[in-house]
Amino acid sequence: MRRSVVRALIRPLALVAATTVIPLVGAAPVSADNVVVGGFPVDVTQAPWTVALSSRDRFGGTRAGQFCGGVAVARTAVLTAAHCLGDDVLGAPPNRMRDLKVIAGRTDLLSGEGEEIAVSDTRVNPGYDSGTNAGDFAVLTLAKPLPQSAVVTMAGVGDPAYAPGTEALVYGWGDTTGGGAYARGLHAARMRVLSDDLCARAYPGGPQGSYLAASMLCAGEAIGGPDACQGDSGGPLVAAGRLIGLVSWGNGCGRPGSPGVYTRVSEVVRALNAAAGDRTRLHGRS
Ligand code: ARG
Questions:
Q1: Boundaries of each Peptidase S1 domain copy (predicted)?
Q2: Tens of pLDDT along 216-231?
Q3: Rounded to whole angstroms, how far apart are CA atoms 223 and 9?
Q4: Which pLDDT value is given to residue 6?
Q5: Per-residue pLDDT for 151 more than 60?
Q6: End-to-end CA, the chain
Q7: Cβ of 251: how many Cβ atoms within 10 Å?
Q8: Which residue of 30, 135, 207, 259 sits 20 to 30 Å from the alpha carbon of 57, by its own alpha carbon?
Q9: How far, in Å, is the centroid of ligand 1 from the Cα of 279?
């Protein structure tokens, strides 16, 4: 997991799923050499809008086909990362995947809890740039509605939840160690929203990637530690009870000076509102 090229760092669990298995958090000590993603197990009832994206055809059944995270923002709409639906991940356009599902209400992937809901439509943000990872979001339409209690509110532009220093929680079934230890149960990690200045200094461009404040936000702790990791992509970063980010990319996981980078949800809200005024806009890539 210690790669120097950002393209490798942002690739989802998909590409390693065949050979690895994982969790999102560990209690190991933090050091620059020892990647750690400090978090803790949680029950999905604490964050019922957190869902797993699954394709057993593509990723096998050992972890219920989980390959990315997602978050319910309406009863039939789930947000995830655009990069989760790339051809390199799925091996086919998402609308041609016959068994693409959202797993809701299930803490332990291997339990029968909750429900598996078919995805009836996928729309990748036409503004997504896979080179910079700007605009890293996609909208999935569910074949069957979730309960209203499983929907989280998106924080719009100017929401105080985006203020640097705000405490935030990220949720997912991804790597808990940075070494390919994929979780079976849902984990969360607690961190703070960081300032655009700090994020821009952490990712000034070059092999580590560029922080683009208009469509990204970053979160973590200065000394490293709590972070999202591979397999968490598309999942929620929540502050003050509202959705502010989607797991997108980072340089390794939990490294001091390399915070996690998230899709800025206020930008998603803006794009969706614009698309509502021009129905064709989100129909581009799928
Ligand atoms: N791109 C990864 C995924 O697809 C998420 C990486 C997040 N990394 C981080 N250090 N926060 O699962």
A1: 36-277
A2: 999 999 788 999 999 9
A3: 20
A4: 36
A5: yes
A6: 29
A7: 21
A8: 135
A9: 30
Would the pLDDT of 18 be above 70? no
Q: Please, which residues bridge with residue 103 across strands?
A: 52, 116
Task: Please name the residue that has the structure tokens 């000394």.
Answer: 223
Nearest Cα residue to 235 out of 169, 280, 160 = 169
Report the residue count for the chain: 286
**Gap between the Cα atoms of 137 and 263, Å rounded:** 7
Cite the DSSP H helix spans in the chain.
6-9, 14-17, 56-59, 87-90, 196-202, 265-277
Give the side-chain half-sphere CA count within 13 A for 12: 32
Tell me: pLDDT of 246 over 90: yes
Please state the φ and ψ torsions of residue 33, each to the nearest 5 degrees.
Answer: -95, -15
Partners of residue 210 on adjacent β-strands = 204
147: CA distance to ligand 1 center in Å?
Answer: 28
